[in-house]
Amino acid sequence: MRFILAILFVLLLLTGLAVYFLMPELVSDLIQPNSKKNQAKENIPTQIQPGLPEGAINAEILEKSYFTIGYNNGHRQPEWVSYRLTKPLMDQPGLSHNENFTEDLDIAGNYPIFPDYRRTRLGALQLVSPAEMGWSMIATRETFLSSNICPQDTSITNGIWQELTEQSQQWAIDKEALYIVSGPVFQGRARSFGRNRISMPSHFYKVLLDFTPPKLQGVGFIIPNRATELSLRRFMVSIDSVEVFTGMNFFPGIPENIQETVESSLTPRDWQIRKREETQ
Asked: Which position among 5, 153, 184, 211 has the lowest Cβ density within 10 Å, counted as fewest Cβ atoms?
């Protein structure tokens, strides 16, 4: 009997030594379940739900197939648009389309704005661009709705704003997935035009949130609604800076401690801007 107990003791001892030396990480986690390593794992969100932007006005929420619009009826244009871009979507070949601008009948009041645009030389900026939704005919068609349109100086329609749109698509590929919010800004007393008194934005903004673990990071842009010779990088700022400029909270669904870290920091090297010919 003593001989059998001795053999069992030796086997248990050998098993314990094998676990300790061959699986040290398991032993460490068992001994110290609240170690810094485990805490770091727990602090990485596995699924981000940013929520819809919150602003100074109660925007009319218009849910589209693949993006959401917060419409400002006072200015006759969106207060913001919110959407998600992912690498699988951007990797799909773009579908050919031949769409025309259309009034969005979901808007309360249903103000026909396109006759006002046709009487001016202003461009009609699509905050969600057809290129970003090119993988879906339905989504592409919805980018031509009046609820997605802002008046824009034609000098930047195909200039710096187009460059930012192309960069956003490339970043979605590089970083796997992005949450994006974009919209107009009205500094001071906005001038208006047309029978429907459409307000002319002084600036446009765009914020991008990279939510792919293990690193959460963000970037913002504030671009004047006029011609500029400055490079896109000169308009790169933190998300916090855009929130202060607009008075909005872009990602209210994210825990405050994560918001403070991500939105207040800016690392330009994480948002490399390629030359336009390289992104096309």
From this structure: 5
